[in-house]
């Protein structure tokens, strides 16, 4: 799995919310739509609360609509009022429904007179699913507290009451007050020279979906990397990050050349503490990123290429529902590959594409049929589960297939036209296909027919003849791995001195799930993987070593698990340990120490692993 290991595949049937277009939101966009959000929030670190109000501008669609229905989760609501055109306020009645485990609490606000604006005064919960609050001790520099949001998929509702559906777009403005030394940033234009005065205002003039709402605050320094890009990070991290990400301006310029102008103004990157639960998040104007990619040799900077690419695929054109998420992640992974190729060469881009493709080939057959589809039946999925390898790897493989069939020039031209045509809209897979038919399929007859396209989009598995890049370096690693496993080559004779990060990842990905302990020990004495500073390598290494029964690696694995909260890098270790009673006990001990530093999502995911393991035990 790209973001999460294969805990459970999306077999869970969600209760269908009132509006069937997006089953993960209670919003009723056919009745009324939010067009602008104005936030006024105070950061309360001691209480781990955001305290303030959200004012929503409304576009009433149905003259008979009796109410405004919003999504919330664990919000404490103090009052709700209508704002008249004259500025007069009138209290409104509302009902906050009992909390649904997945969807939160439906908020129904009686508003039969259709006010132009509604204001909700509220406080967030200290355990808001979309926020993490860190004490100074839990940060890199240990000076000031830190907080950040992660709204995708359906966590914006835990810090703002709104229509939490990717189909609904709105502009936003915000005022945020903070303790004096704490810098605040948001998914809007940020000013690198903003004085540390505890008073911040923001403006996002482009309509965005709710999952792109973001806020971060802490001991944040700023370092420019180009005319329209800067790194925001804790003082001890910002220099290293600015060096790792020094190619950011080149990446922006490259993407503009391929697909048209970058339309958002600045592109900045906020490097978060290591508890950030994802690799990166494409918050408009301010990508949020894990520090685990700062390995010193730029080998993991395709993460920036990926999040930047979302400025076209995702933020400019947004999947209208979580079921269509491959329109965000698949197209972005394709564009990421093109940026990587332009900056770091075809061999690097091909290795990254092959790593994805091979991992997908290994996994896809084990998934339920519906989850194998790029555009699955929405009734069978859960918002966070829809982000499997399928959206990323099958989606980008589909686009590479289109490129190969139609030729690079024609396909580039098509994709640029697509970004222009649907700019600042949320669209479904079907709208994408309706555009593709006249503008690509029928325009260049004989290259690829609609049936083949539909097989990619609605079929299970991977279509036959899906093209794969060649990688002579990976081929050589395959040969060496086989020879090593067959006992024909000793570990120290592996030609691994020059392996880059992706080549180590490939070697480790393709070792058997349970490799003999002796082989594991031979690799470690030759290559010293235990204690590696590269967490992509570490995650794979510790998982293998634990599965092989190598208890000597447990303390180093525990250190990795405690330091890093990124789901994809930490959960596999918990899972590997949880397969034996002794390992499970150890994992629970590690978790007891690590838990206070973990994001709510990471806590939830680790606890789910434990619950499942205990169920199997009994
Ligand atoms: N938008 C995703 C992150 C995401 C997806 C968060 C779904 C929550 C739910 C982001 O663009 C992403 O794909 N991040 C990857 C990194 C990338 C290089 C593949 C990640 O976090 O690992
Ligand atoms: Zn992405």
Quick structural summary:
This protein has 618 residues and is an alpha+beta fold. It has helices spanning 235-244, 248-259, 302-309, 326-344, 346-364, 389-406, 408-421, 429-441, 450-458, 472-485, 501-509, 517-527, 535-547, 554-563, 567-577, 581-594, 600-617; strands at 32-44, 49-60, 67-72, 76-83, 89-91, 94-96, 105-110, 117-123, 131-134, 146-149, 169-177, 183-186, 199-209, 215-218, 221-226, 229-233, 268-271, 280-281, 286-289, 317-319, 425-427.
- Assembly state here? single chain
- Strand content of the residues, in percent? 15-25%
The description of the largest β-sheet is:
7 strands, mixed
- Radius of gyration using CA atoms only: 24 Å
CATH class of the largest domain reads Mainly Beta
Number of domains: 4
The low-pLDDT segments are 5-19
- CATH-derived topology of the largest domain: Immunoglobulin-like
Average pLDDT metric: 95
Structural shape: globular
Quickly give the structural class: alpha+beta
Give the proportion of residues in helices.
25-40%
Full CATH superfamily name of the largest domain: tricorn interacting facor f3 domain
* Cofactors and ligands: ligand BES, zinc ion
Please tally the helical runs, counting DSSP H or I stretches of 4 or more residues.
17
Per CATH, the architecture of the largest domain is Sandwich
Number of DSSP-assigned strands? 21
Distance between the termini: 28 Å
